[in-house]
Amino acid sequence: MGERQRGRLTSVSERTQYVTWIREAKESGARLPLACEEAGISLRTYKRWYQDGKVLADKRPDAVRTEPANKLSAAEQAIILNVSNEKRFASLPPTQIVPTLLDEGLYYGSESTFYRVLKLHGQLHHRGRSAAPKGHKAPETFEATGPGQVFCWDITYLPSAVRGQFYYWYMLEDLFSRKIVGDEVHEQESGELAAELLQRTLLRENCLHTGLVLHSDNGAPMKSQTMRAKAYELGVTTSYSRPRVSNDNPFAESLFRTCKYRPEWPSSGFKSLDEARQWVLKFTRWYNYEHKHSQLNFVTPHQRHTGQDKAILAQRKRCMEAAKAANPSRWGKRDVRNCEPVGPTTLNPEKKPVKQEEKQAA
Q1: What is the C-alpha separation between 313 and 297, in angstroms, rounded?
Q2: Angular region, 125: left φ>0, alpha ψ -120 to 50, beta rest
Q3: Taking CA 214 as the corner, what is the angle to CA 289 and CA 139, rounded to the nearest 5 degrees?
Q4: What domains, with CATH codes, occur in the chain?
Q5: pLDDT tens column, 19-46
Q6: Which of 293, 340, 275, 292 lies closest to 314, judged by CA?
Q7: Residues 329-344: pLDDT tens digits?
Q8: What is the rounded CA–CA span in Å between residue 212 and residue 204?
Q9: Cα separation of 55 and 46, whole Å?
Q10: Alpha-carbon distance 224 to 226, whole Å?
Q11: Cα 51 from Cα 36, distance rounded (Å)
């Protein structure tokens, strides 16, 4: 049977459509096997669907299937249920029950059989006193079409010269421009310090009560009551990553990586809090005003933040077009490099499901 139909129930109307297409192709002079192949079914399938001038319905839904000979009887299922509900096994999964019974010389079924029986009788649930594991849905998607709409923030460790002692860099980054809009270095992690930094940043960026989204991970300072209350007071919508999923806050993580891979990064640690603050201040100025960001088409975050990127990229394009006009043989038919400003930036974009046809093509 063809790839399009294998293993799938087909209605009479769908079969009739396929048969009609194939018969029309045959009447127009096409060979029957080739017509079936073009329709996506095999010749054998066509002959099974179309017999004596009629399109037959799929008989599988009405088929009478005999019970397997090795099916557990009601009494055997009852034994498995009773054993699973014994006091000593009530909090254990089948993977613990079956080996214990085997040690006692008893065998009522495999682990999969126990799971199947428990599921059949509505008892396949979390067993034991511990909380059942919970799934976490992907964080909400946000798109920034301009500065001051979505901020990402995080705290990273800065090593000191004393082993085991760290300083903490609080950092807020504008998603649209990648600009560090607020940052401080402290000796401890604190929701109060984070709340104060957030308020100062929003005042400086004129983002109070604008519906700004603030995304972070699930650290204690991020989810502290003080930070949540301050965000609500300032009209900020909070968004959080899934637990232990750093990819949900990729922009902040990428910025921290850029910082710690700088050639001047002090691998032996900072000697004092003041030294750490001075180093971070120098890095922030470089990152915002000198670093040509690859994801911004090589303009600085400040240029993107202030809208200067459009004029800068347009000037680059004019410069390259002039160079191409002056010496076209070196360029050939190639266009000058892309000098268009990058579009909106999306945080945690939804992943499109891959269709089966695309998987097969890959």
Answers
A1: 8
A2: beta
A3: 120
A4: 12-62 (no CATH), 74-120 (no CATH), 142-294 (3.30.420.10)
A5: 999 999 999 999 999 999 988 889 999 9
A6: 340
A7: 888 888 888 999 999 9
A8: 14
A9: 9
A10: 5
A11: 15
